[in-house]
Known about the structure:
The structure holds two protein chains of two kinds.
Chain A: H1 2-37, H2 43-47, E1 50-51, E2 56-57, H3 60-91, H4 96-109, H5 113-127, H6 134-158, H7 162-170, H8 175-204, H9 207-210, H10 232-241, H11 250-282
Antiparallel strand pairs in A: 1-2
Helix pairs in contact in A: 1-11, 3-6, 3-8, 3-10, 4-6, 5-6, 6-8, 7-8, 8-11, 10-11
Chain B: E1 5-16, E2 19-30, E3 34-38, H1 45-51, E4 62-70, E5 73-74, H2 82-88, E6 89-92, H3 103-113, H4 119-132, H5 136-139, H6 152-164, E7 170-174, H7 182-195, E8 200-204, H8 208-214, E9 217-222, E10 225-231, H9 232-237, H10 242-248
Parallel strand pairs in B: 3-8, 3-9, 6-7, 7-8
Antiparallel strand pairs in B: 1-2, 1-4, 4-5, 9-10
Helix pairs in contact in B: 3-4, 3-6, 4-6, 6-7
Amino acid sequence: MKKEKIYQHIAFFGLRLSVLTIISVLGLILWFLAKEGFSALSWEFLTQPPKNGMTEGGIFPALVGTLYLTSGAILFALPLGVFAAIYLTEYAYQGRFVRIIRLGVNNLAGVPSVVFGLFGLAMLVEYCGFGPSILAGSLTLGILILPTIIRTSEEALLAVPQTYREASLALGVGKWHTIYKAVLPSAIPGILTGSILGIGRAAGETAPIIFTAACFYAPRLPHSIFDQVMALPFHLYVLATEGTHFEKTLPIQYGTALVLLGLVLGINLIAIVIRTGLRKKMR
Amino acid sequence: MTNKTKIEAEKVNFFYGEVRALKDVSMCVQENMITALIGPSGCGKSTFLRTLNRMNDLIPRTTLAGKIFIDGEDIYSPAVDVVELRKKVGMVFQKSNPFPKTIFDNVAYGPRAHGVIDKATLAFIVEKSLKRAALWDEVKDKLKQSAMELSGGQQQRLCIARALAINPEIILMDEPASALDPIATAKIEELTRDLKKKYTIVIVTHNMQQAARVSDCTGFFLLGELIEFNATNKIFTAPQDKRTEDYITGRFG
């Protein structure tokens, strides 16, 4: 009995330590970024383009660019991913073919992002002739987050009780209507979780957009989806590695990182609010 | 048993993969009567019930041999639209399974799916179905509340109302009261007796008293075979087969 208690204490201690470590690392990053970047934040920083060889001014074009790229990626990947997940869980015969597709999707999730960047360059920029553009970048980011969205959507769909499907089908309701009216509503919170993860990843990735969408400096905002854009992660990368005034731009770098973090957090917050609202409606 | 035959099963065999779950089951179900299917767990009574609205089609690697006629029409013929069949043959499940929607939306789900959009018509159908399921008085003031907030017995009657809303001719009930307390069970039984005026009912039950109380005919299943099928009072007072007698007197099962 006593021995059991000791084991329990050790186990709980281990669990607490893990959580604490994770939270401290996260807290440290946030604290550091906030401390270093806060001074750079201002209305001007958010609404003005960079000036003086990027050593002054704001990050407005990069902010807008990242918003465009991320929205484009989600617009492309969410419907495609959800439909693919619906097909895989609801329609496809659960045999070897589906197992191979699942394996492929899981492997795709583990492919380094730079590979997606190269694919985007070869396929979208060159072969399809989109050139480095919002379109090519969005699609590349979309393909990058597709596996995440498919997997989380599949899990969300599989978590919907089988009884809902049976109840609906037993009422003489067709399969598509059953999925649309009885299954999907219950799966939407889970699907939203997947999109949150996707948005976060799409907004933060640098490698996939280096070749496909991002430009070093753009004095004006893009006019169409075939224009190149600045993007927050790439802007950060440029300032940190290629700037001639590396030291001078440090506050701008931290400020950019802080804004990027805030942007992702903000989008996630919106999705979480929608999700909570939907969950309440479900009960 | 002078009524018209509603369902006729002819040498029905059913396989889960290689496992034969039903063996040459033949049975005639009469219109506007309650037919009870009894037998120990795993005897095939639920499987048989689910062949009647082709719910077993949803389980992969299953096959059916034999014929089932409803109103003289072979429901396994390729010409039959399963969706249409299920409109005619409603089902109530063992575990009440309302959708996480409002009470109103649960009952209106079927009619809406079948194209009823007029609000007044929907309200009329919902009220009529809830009244028929003896639930209207309990929920008429809270139709906009979630169905999940109802008690287990109320949820099951809601599921019956939902099935009634699409105006079926036959209602299949798969142990509809097995998860309910005695009072809720009594309500369901009373309701079932009342419903047979309009519908043909086939009910699977574990509870032999329940079969005796509500049904007109009873079929006894054992290991996938229909051992005996007769008027309920005959089955329970003068069973022809030794195995039926052993089961209803509680010697096994």
